[in-house]
Specification:
Length: about 375
């Protein structure tokens, strides 16, 4: 097999036909309205409220600032926020940058989402909120988490960066908890170049989000919050409108890629596809597989290196754990979350995007299977 040139990266953004984007850029140019909630922004907010089945959605310039604004808008006393360490560093950074102490709860061994059976033992008198993550698009056990949170009068803010379009038993993920944050970064399965959103049932909370993303300004021009600047601009919103138009088609293509991987790699001892929770409609955001080195004969890192030699770049999502990042050295004990730690050692996310050629999937699978000893 020849080395891939250009290389195959773990993901590649979906893009609409360039002529359609040009058309919207022309509209933006003639309006001279570039940001601050212009026509494209208004159209996208309305369209996404419908797509994600939420009464209130607010757009942001990226997912991370959406998360920071969402935490700020909860108006919490200083204290702790419970989260999981098996996630992109953004989740933990947002908690710390907002002045809170992250407290790490371990994940479930199957779905790698917050283990609701271990949640209550993490709650202390200083707990202010719960911030679970829908890892790889696998929704958390939201009913259980929401139930525990309610009992303790705690808000739940879901990091739904991976879960755009996902439903659980027909119910949109955004309908759970106090609020959900989505990321529309270029590497996610739905993109606005850079971008993000917060969805919530609470209209008053959505008003606060407007303030936090725009220096605290409200329509009456009163400055009510100490907000920053996290607004989405018109060019991002235009990309979002077009990518939304093609979203279902893109997910269908991702589904075919996922099926091909399964056909090629199922039944190999020591290699397993990560399970998906019952009742989930998937968005195929990632393709996580795990390796049991004792049975497979090679470990995750060796498989990753073998792919690299052919110009194929899988990713070790999420290694290190956020609690092990250099900037947090000495602050957290990763041994307190053993399931997360194990997951971070065994999972490899293989290349996954709508336009990934099935022949390339076959080549990737051949290399992966060839690592078996
Ligand atoms: C991508 C991501 C974010 C941050 O979103 P950006 O849009 O890149 O700022 C936060 N949490 C998780 C789990 C993510 O994967």
């Amino acid at each position: 097999m020849q080395k891939k040139n250009p290389p195959i990266l773990v993901t590649r953004p979906s893009l609409p036909p360039v002529e359609e984007y040009e058309q919207l850029v022309r509209e933006i140019f003639s309006s001279r309205f570039l940001t601050n909630g212009g026509a494209q922004h208004q159209r996208l907010e309305a369209a996404l409220q419908e797509k994600l089945k939420t009464p209130n959605l607010r757009l942001f310039t990226n997912g991370h600032l959406a998360l920071e604004c969402a935490i700020s808008a909860l108006n919490l006393e200083p204290g702790e926020i419970i989260t999981t360490p098996l996630t992109f560093i953004s989740t933990t950074h947002a908690i710390v940058r907002c002045g809170f102490t992250p407290v790490f709860c371990d994940v479930e061994p199957d779905f790698f989402t917050l283990d609701a059976t271990k949640l209550e033992e993490r709650i202390t008198p200083r707990t202010r909120a719960i911030l679970p993550v829908h890892v790889y698009g696998n929704p958390c056990d939201m009913a259980a988490i929401d139930r525990i949170a309610k009992r303790h009068h705690l808000p739940v803010l879901y990091d739904a960066a991976h879960a755009f379009g996902v439903t659980l038993h027909g119910r949109a993920v955004a309908s759970f908890g106090t609020a959900s944050m989505f990321s529309f970064h270029a590497t996610k399965c739905y993109n606005t170049i850079e971008g993000g959103a917060v969805a919530t049932k609470d209209a008053a909370y959505a008003e606060l989000l407007n303030g936090y993303k725009n220096f605290g300004f409200h329509p009456d021009e009163e400055i009510r919050e100490i907000g920053g600047n996290a607004k989405m601009n018109e060019f991002q919103a235009a990309m979002g409108l077009l990518n939304l138009k093609y979203f279902d088609r893109e997910i269908e293509k991702r589904g075919k890629v996922a099926t091909r991987y399964r056909e090629n790699l199922s039944g190999i001892a020591g290699l397993s596809f990560r399970p998906v929770r019952d009742g989930v409609t998937q968005n195929y955001a990632y393709l996580p597989v795990s390796f049991d080195p004792q049975v497979f004969g090679a470990d995750r890192d060796q498989v990753s290196d073998a792919l690299k030699q052919y110009g194929i770049f899988a990713r070790k999502y999420f290694n290190p754990l956020t609690s092990e990042a250099a900037c947090y050295a000495g602050r957290f004990d990763p041994a307190e979350t053993p399931v997360s730690r194990e997951a971070s050692q065994i999972v490899l996310t293989l290349p996954m995007y709508a336009d990934l050629a099935l022949t390339d999937v076959d080549d990737i699978c051949e290399i992966v299977a060839g690592c078996k000893k």
